[in-house]
Amino acid sequence: MHRRTVHTVHPSPLGDLLLTACAGPGGHAVSSLSLPGGPGTPALRQEDRDDRPFTEAHRQLEGYFAGRRTRFDLPLSAPGSAFRQRVWQALDEIPYGTTTTYGELAARLGVPRSEMRAVGRALGANPHLLLRPCHRVIGADGSMRGYAGGVENKVWLLTHEGALQPALL
After folding, report:
1. CA 20 to 30 Å from 15, out of 37, 40, 42, 78?
2. Which long-range CB contacts under 8 A does 115-121 form with residues at least 24 apart?
3. Same fold, 5-65 and 82-160
4. What is the pTM of this model?
5. Does the CA dihedral 155-151-132-21 come out positive or negative?
6. Which residues of 102-135 are buried (b: 16+ CB within 10 A; e: fewer)?
7. Is the pLDDT score of 1 beyond 90?
8. Right CATH number for 82-160 from 1.10.10.10, 2.60.40.10, 1.10.443.10, 3.30.565.10?
9. Per the residue annotation, which of 57, 129, 131, 134 is the catalytic one?
10. Tell me: the pLDDT tens digits for 31-58?
11. Does 2 have pLDDT greater than 60?
């Protein structure tokens, strides 16, 4: 049985966000949130646009960008290995307005330092930009390492959340 993937677009300060969802037994679950044209953006057909399953996602995203929401509570669905699922779930535990390092995240997961790159690869494969806050993971030296939504958007998100101070001009 083929599940129809539907999508919508949510305007944001970062640009239009593309959300996709598949119907499941309990309704629709968000299968991805990405910036159109970015890495991992699924190919979609205009006739599969359907805004109705995304009412709650739109409401929560609006609240986040308005500074009223610090967590997302949406049904999420994405294929991935058990390891990737563990890494993605660990992202949910990084509090709003804070950051952690790749090494700290790996240690929290019990991943040996020799396998830390696997954590980075799992973060890079996170299909739920923003909803699963991989933007809160930074380099041990405070550097803004890769982010599928673009490093400039990572800086914007961390500044919006108060984890970074706005740059003085």
Report:
1. 78
2. 118/83, 119/87, 120/145, 120/146
3. no
4. 0.89
5. positive
6. beebbeebebeeeebebbbebbebbbbbbbbbbb
7. no
8. 1.10.10.10
9. 134
10. 999 976 666 666 677 778 899 999 999 9
11. no
